[in-house]
Amino acid sequence: MLDYDEEAGRYDASRGGEPRARAAAEAVLALLPARPRDLLDVACGTGIVTRRFAAARPGLRVTGVDLAPAMTCRAAARLPGAVVRGDSRRLPVRDASVDAVVSVWLLHLLAGPGEVRRVIGECARVLRPGGIWVTTVGKAASHNVGSDIDAVLAARPPSPVHDGPEDVTAHAAGLGLRPAGHGRFTGHGQGRSPRRTIADLRRGWFVTLPPGDPRTEGFADRLASLPDQDRPRPDPVFHLRAFRKGG
């Protein structure tokens, strides 16, 4: 996994910046109740999306939680007094205290099904009855846009997938969360170019090809042979699922 303290300084610029943040926030907000009182953004990162929730819904109390100190510092600058450092597996939030929980680009980072279930359980715990949890699903698959880059990377060792929509839905059902809608948004600015993919490969972006692995340079060489080294391929499209807490 990437070191998100080290990543914080370049996180926004390398992941589409404000256009992607706007698309993500709008898609999430479309799945929320009309008048939620409290929203918890789990793994809020730099707060670039989180602050848009607060701006879009006057009167909505928004709190961001993230484990990486450098991320929480950046988020706190965007939402003063509304960001806390905390682990998504042990949220520093009371039971049944919020109307909405958001976890965008989180589940795919977790170590296995047990951790995924644990995090979903925490999201369910802090929701009031009738509250909504919104999460991204199938993140890795979203990046496969059928490009020549994807054709090269298809031969790399596969990563375990813990955030597939069917698995997430099954975990949620076991924790009293029922499907309540779905959405999608474009990851503006995240279309990969061959040169950028080589750089990501060499810094450990693709976890099954760690830096120093002999296979890494083989993939880098094949990517370097592709045409239009600096032309981004199509942007990914990310998928959201919403779940409602019973009661």
What do you see in this structure?
Helix 2 (17-29) crosses helix 3. By secondary structure, this protein is of the alpha/beta class. The chain has 10 helices and 7 strands. The relative contact order is 0.16. It has one domain (4-143, 160-191, 235-245): Rossmann fold.
Q: Which terms would index this structure?
A:
globular, alpha/beta, 7-stranded mixed beta sheet, single chain, Rossmann fold, 247 residues, 10 helices, 20% strand
List the helices and strands and how they pair.
Layout (H helix, E strand, L loop, with lengths): L3 H11 L2 H13 L8 E5 L7 H7 L4 E6 L2 H10 L4 E3 L12 E6 L9 H14 E11 L1 H4 L5 H6 L11 H10 L2 E10 L7 H9 L11 H11 L12 E9 L2
Q: List the domain count as a whole number.
A: 1
Uncertain segments: none
Number of helices: 10
**Strand-residue fraction?**
15-25%
Radius of gyration: 18 Å
CATH class: Alpha Beta
Shape: globular
Supply the CATH superfamily name: Vaccinia Virus protein VP39
Brief overview, please?
This protein is an alpha/beta fold.
